[in-house]
Structure formats: C-alpha cells, structure tokens
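Project standup — Tuesday

K.O.: blocked on the structure for the chain from last sprint. Re-posting the sequence here as requested.
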Amino acid sequence: MAVIGAEEATRAAIAWLIEVVASGREVATSLYYRDPLDLHLALTRALVVGVDALRPAIDVAAERARHRLREENLSPYRRAQAMIVAGASASPFLAEVSDAAARLVESANADGCWPAETLYVAGNTESAGLWHYQSWAVTTALCVRALASVASTKRG
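H.V.: unblocked you, prediction finished:
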C-alpha cells in the first residue's frame, strides 16, 4: 500500500484494511502479524507516505494504542510501536505518549540499547520447526524512532 498508494487498483484493499481494523480482526486475518500493533505500524507508515485514505483505520488504531499504553505493561518493542501509532492520530495523545517515552527510556540497557525481542515467527506452523527471529538492533531502532517522533512532536 505504501509503495502503490491510494489508486483505483488499491481501493478495495484499503477498504478491506479499514474494515479489518474497525472489526479488530488484525491478527486473525494475517499469518505475519502476531499483534495488532504490527499491522497498525505498517498502516501508519503508509499514511506517512501519503495514503490518506487509511486515516479511518489509523484513528481507530491510535485509540487502541493509547489504551494499551495506559493499561498494559508492554515490552519496549510493543511500547515503541504503540507510541508511533498513537502519535499518528489526527489528535495525538501527547500525555500517554510522553509517559510511555519516559518508561521506554527507563527500559533501555546500560549500553543504551534495548533487549532483543521476537519480531516474527517463521517455519511450518503444522510442525515443531518454528523459529523466532529476534533482534536487539531492530528493537533499538524502533525505540529510537519512537523517541525521536515524541521529541519532534514536542518541538513542533
């Protein structure tokens, strides 16, 4: 979606994505997204590059991300995702995102990185051959991106 944009050929896909988010079926409709925030972050990226037709899905996702920031003890990776998604709202949730930023900074390792987290699971789901892809570098990059977006919002 982010590459093609909102074109005649993508209207049905955009409508489907909006419906998936509105109905809370993000995980049930994908083999790749283990958490709704995974899809929400991808939709946020598409919005940033100009797929404005996704705004209804982003606003629903941002409200859910806000709720998760307030109510759940998220891992650093999930917290960073939720911060970015909540910040993409037409009415950003600055208090929740600022509080989450403070918790995110506190969760960094002494060397300034964040611990590796499982980003995705691969393999044949019908057998025992599953493996988890983990990366401290990807987790750290997303956390830095989330903190930078908060700093940018506060300056803007």
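K.O.: great, moving the ticket to review. The longest strand covers residues 117-122. The chain is about 55% helix and 5% strand.
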